[in-house]
TrEMBL record:
Name of the molecule in the record: 3-dehydroquinate synthase
Gene3D superfamilies assigned to the protein according to its UniProt record, in alphabetical order: 3.40.50.1970, Dehydroquinate synthase-like - alpha domain (1.20.1090.10)
Organism annotation: Anaerobranca gottschalkii DSM 13577
Chain ranges of the 3-dehydroquinate synthase C-terminal domain: 168-311
Cofactor: NAD(+); Co(2+)
Organism superkingdom: Bacteria
GO biological process, one term: aromatic amino acid family biosynthetic process
Pfam families: DHQ_synthase (PF01761), DHQS_C (PF24621)
């Protein structure tokens, strides 16, 4: 994996000063919320540069080919060359979109990522995956393209609403289920995490990034059976994400997916009961934010699981959790449907 500069800490964005001097022009793809929340921050970041902004107002809805066409028109009108660069400032959807565009414009230009949500800081900004949605299906188009630098400032997390913050913790919980040492540390510090203590959050981000880099290293294109561990909780998560009736965000959907992955691991005797209940403790704590959510409301989506990127032949691939790490299992559709129906009956028993 190519070296990517990852700079974490208070005011880390300002260290872009050391990079921006090499570019004549900068295209800034930014969430409109960020321009309203942090105008002075952005002003300092871009001071002294020749830049143009491309505002995104509904990131997940705009993560599509139409926006790529609009971005191309904007870049050409600005005469952005292959020796210039792009900044992605926002959450995971902004990063996915901007990274995809950077990978194809002029056959690839430099880009820098400034993730502003917890889920982007610990997960989507790391690892080089880019993505677009297509005709209602999530992340069906994409490429692998690494940024030149990632600037992570935990201060911006203070403005996150609960759904977005807990959604970010969904990805953090994934890392905790994969790595016992991190799980134990997270449980010990969970109260401070939920209080958004900035010192603890910085450690959460650092530890999460190290775990993700461990699984990505040597398997950047997800072909060697190592990086697939990071799909834990995502098969069901992607299925229900932003769907009627609850419209859960990515991270909250992954939390439900993690709960199902634990259930599946226990039912298939990959995980013993004691470990199952211990690991569910964290998921139960975080799932409280979804309130009256009922998984049975999503049975109408089950047949769409066959569009998941992890489908192999006629079978679905799931990442399960065992006593000593992850295990990839395959299920046919009928097995999956039977397990999800059983799980649905038990879902609301989260005590």
């Amino acid at each position: 994996m190519d070296k990517v500069d990852v700079i974490i800490g208070k005011n880390s964005w300002l260290k872009f000063e050391n990079y921006k001097k090499k570019y004549h022009k900068i295209l800034v793809v930014v969430d409109s919320k960020i321009t309203n929340l942090y105008p002075q921050y952005l002003g300092t970041l871009l001071e002294g540069t020749n830049y143009v902004k491309f505002l995104i107002t509904e990131p997940e809805k705009e993560k599509n080919l139409s926006t790529i066409e609009e971005l191309t028109i904007k870049a050409l009108g600005f005469n952005l060359t292959r020796y210039d660069c792009l900044l992605a400032i926002g959450g995971g959807a902004i990063g996915d979109l901007a990274a995809f565009f950077s990978s194809i414009y002029k056959r690839g230009i430099d880009f820098y990522n400034f993730p502003t949500t917890l889920i982007a800081q610990v997960d989507s900004a790391i690892g080089g995956k880019t993505a677009l949605n297509f005709q209602g299906y999530k992340n069906q188009l994409g490429s692998f393209y690494l940024p030149r630098g990632i600037f992570v400032d935990p201060q911006v997390l203070k403005s996150l609403e609960d759904d977005d913050f807990y959604g970010g913790l969904g990805e953090v919980a994934k890392y905790a289920l994969l790595e016992k040492e991190f799980y134990d540390w997270l449980i010990k510090n969970l109260d401070l995490v939920l209080e958004k203590d900035l010192v603890i959050l910085e450690k959460v981000i650092e530890k999460s990034i190290k775990i993700k880099e461990k699984y990505v290293k040597g398997d950047i294109k997800d072909t060697k059976g190592q990086r697939i561990a990071l799909n834990l909780g995502h098969t069901l998560g992607h299925l229900i994400e932003n769907q009627h009736p609850d419209y859960l965000n990515h991270g909250l959907s992954v939390l439900v997916g993690l709960d199902f992955a634990l259930y599946l691991s226990y039912k298939l005797q990959i995980l013993n009961k004691s470990s199952y209940l211990q690991k569910k403790f964290l998921i139960n704590k975080l799932l409280k934010v979804v309130g009256e959510f009922n998984i049975t409301n999503y049975h109408y989506l089950l047949n769409k699981v066959v569009t998941d990127k992890k489908v192999k032949g006629e079978n679905l691939q799931f990442v399960a959790i065992g006593e000593k790490g992850f295990k990839v299992i395959t299920l046919d559709y009928q097995q999956f449907e039977n397990l999800i129906l059983e799980y649905s009956g038990d879902f609301n028993d989260r005590n």
